[in-house]
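hi support,

uploading two proteins for the ticket. first:
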Amino acid sequence: MTRRALVPLIALMGCAAALSAEAQGVSTPRDQQGTRSANGGDSGFVTPEFYPAPPGLPRGSLSDGVTGLIVRDLSEARDFCIRSPRVEYVIDCLSEEYGRIAEKMPRGDYEAAKSAVAEAARGLGALAGANADPRLPRARLKRPGGAATPPLTPVRSTAVNRLNAAAAEIVEEAETVLLRAAERSDRRRAHYQRIAAAIGSTKVLLRAL
């Protein structure tokens, strides 16, 4: 059975009558229970509302710890959205999760990375909005930590392959921006390359959907 032939989000929640066009229902991504992140840790978006300052340094200073949190969140966002019960919701899910991560990222040494992730979030959101499927409801997905996303916009089922390819191009542009920024600074090279790799892995999966 293909992804598009899976039971609709509404039926998965057993609340078809309650889920309106403004998506009051919540759906749980497939295989969410008992999963672990790609980095081996428990999945769950458990980082704080903002990435803390490294010990003894101002917030925004490069550190392996902060970079690791950003990479983990990007990887978990990828895994969470790709497991969406319907592929039509993946693009706007990525937009929402990238936006959350960008908001948490500090400025300072991470300014260019923050901007690249935020721009990818805006591009993905615009793509989903411009290609919304009026036949499908907006829907919330339940994050591993328990909170639900805002209502997500599904893209047109008939164009999902083309739109996923377009989304992959948006993500690839963010990856390219990060790699170029890495080349301009020896000090931040390794950090930006790690963030770029996390973004790039999303691109690969989008093209495989």
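and the second one:
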Amino acid sequence: MKPFPSFLFLLSLLFCFSSGLFAQKEKMMIIEEGQWKPDSLKSLGEIKVLDDGFKLKCSYLQTLEQALKRTAKAGGNVLSIEEIQKPDAMSTCYRLWGSAYRISDFPQYNKDRIRHCYEIKQTLLNDTASYALVYFIRPVTSQSALVNIKVSVGDTLLKIHNGSRHVVKISNPGQYTIKVKNGFGSKELNLERGVAYFFKLEYFKGAGAVMEQVLPDIGTYYFNKIRSEIINRKG
């Protein structure tokens, strides 16, 4: 089984919301939208952090903190985020919808997720493939929707518009630089034969584009979601 790129670093992000940061008695975990959840998990209830019209402490981190506290109050140690809305014309606050869960064995969850991601990868290409695949996904957002995100993969330049996805076949795997031209994000990667790589893109007004490498469960979730949205737009 080939390891996923930067996998240990990405897994460490799951555990950054611990007792010291949000004053919880036990370690908490966040599962983001599209991330794999075992079928055996049972929801302990919905978690909503909304704007009542008078909120002042409603930045991204403050909203997340409130959601984690409500998760703990419900008896959970896992917050599964289903949607986060950024400030817009309707509200100056971040708003969050999700569910509370409880996982008794975090290390086992990580092992199961690795296995699930490997199974996804096997549906895209097998270990004996002579090429690599690089997926770029840009979910639909209302912010700077008309601005294209420019990304280079080696000598290839892509223009990725709002609500689109692209796949680049790397016929000659090896050392590549993947870089956002009009924003932040650059990765030096040794692209391996038989491996699929996923990058999620977003454009922030006043800051530019941001690129994040994600695992296959999240990557394929957004890839298929964008595909369905494109089909629905075409009617």
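thanks. also noticed: Residues 44 and 74 are 7 Å apart (CA to CA).
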